Amino acid sequence: MALTSEQTASQANGRSAAHDAYADTEFPTPYLGRSVRIVDKVVNVDMQQSPHPKNQRGELGKPLFNWYHNTVSKDPLTRVSAPNHFADRRHFLSTVINQAAKGAINSRQVEVRDPAVMTRHIKAVAHYMGADVVAVAKAHPSFLYAGGRYVQDGSAQDDYESKTPEALVRQFPYILVATTAWDYDKLQAHRHFIGDAAYHVSQIKGNMILKALEGYIKELGYTALRGVAIPQAAGVASGVGELGRNGLLINKHFGARIHMPDPIMTDLPLVPDEPVDIGVDDFCKICRKCANTCPTNSITFDDKVVHNGVEKYKINWLTCYKLRPYVHDHWSSCLTCAAVCPYTKPNVWWRDLAVWALHTCPYVARPALVHALKWIDDRFWGVTRNSRVRWLDYDSGVKPGEHACTVSGCTASHSGQEQEVVGEFGFYAPLKENTNRFVKR
Amino acid sequence: MSIVARKWPWSKKDVHRDDPYWDFFIKTPPADLTNTVTELIRNAPAGNVFPTKTDIHTPEIMSQHVKDMARYFGAEWTGIAKLESHDDQHPDGYPFAVLCAVRAEYEPRVSPGIGGQVPVQNGLFITFVLSAWIRELGFRARVESQWEAKTLAAQAGLGRLDAEGRLVTPQFGTKVYIADAICTDLPLIANG
Question: Is A79 within 8 Å of chain B by CB?
Fold first, then answer.
């Protein structure tokens, strides 16, 4: 694994004083599985410097600012389910949920004798409410934002805002990660309103579940903080998945098609889960399917780098973000890297078999197995996706910008629309050759 | 990864029997209603109707689309009832009501806990997003929480009301919760 040059240099000179001081503290460096490794002091990320707040302040330029603030989507379902492209804010459920007042903590605390029983209970509760993946992470100061709280389109102010990450971790040692997965069949029409629908509807459902779960923890008599922890870090630590080349968490059952919403930090006594090994590290070293198909070339072909003390694959988030205003007429969430990932498959026995094979395979034999699985994936699912998906009156076989009613049996007169004859393949704009302006390979 | 009790479909075993907190989850009413999502969504104001009407298909196809959309949001069954336009109860003259049913393991009326209200929560999610979608299509839609949705669901053909006023259905028995009716003027075809 190649490290960046400055990192290699500092290691050659022996461990730095800062690093030693860090290693001696009461918070030992957490093990995050094979895909991510903390190798140096991690500076807590200021959430005001993350992409969406930057764009909200207009620091990413006018086109992106206008895309974020002043665009209304053409598609009725996107206007209902996607953040910031609504015609009426009141139609977007996450606005209602995130801007709600915080409930009070129940003064009659439920006694927890065995944290394992409570862990089983809270996971059963989350699944009962509709979450697809639930896990508990042991909190670590490096998982937390530097200051303030971050919930998109809302607020999460609480009494603990002035506390340092270390103090917060001492008081609230667990992070509950509960999340939803989106639909596999609709994801096949990613870069289309169909894929958007799959993504955004499961996202607002997940927001609602997390809000209900937060309320339930407060009813149990414990504190629940939102907007505190970085979801990816908590997800890796709790074994929701491993971090892939595409910067997404890759889950055992759903692949990359899971949301990473804001987790709940709590003092409810729980038993934390361990990071998992499903062979993502070995797969990403070889596969590079996401890097090949990314419309903006934002995903690296190179090895892992050390970024802010964490060794991982680093994507270029700015070029990824900059694609959005260009494609706003046709779709709003790209999802290409999630859709082409070989781990993203329907949740059936043969994908369990493949993941199990990767999990049990000795490390030295894994490259051969990965090559075999990659060949199967290319052969049967294609190097890029171009399947045609129809859902309601959406049809990914209709070229972007053209109108056609392809609903069978529809006799309604559609003004100014000719019935188009389309092939059995999907049109997913923009095609790769149109987007090389972002980053030249 | 997660420890979830699973059971066979024919098993009568209570999967939550070993869980000492499950009863609290289902039965104990929340001390602070702000901690529930149901109150929040129920009290949220409705948005505006989108000024441009979307190009729609025939009523048969539109009712199928509404049903598919509701199914996608999590409804187990969706029905459309015709409303009497001259009724005093419906002064706005909405011609149709859309009814969505979700599975309810515990009767929400007698289980006031956050867990007992999960079917209500799921129902509110469906009615909120579905009515917002209809308004974004350019047609009027309103969620009517005051109406007896069960009667309308029986009218739309989901099942029958028994002597105690419970809805009995062939698919789910009585373990069903009918979400608030959405009345709309989207051109649809009523069930049955």
Answer: yes
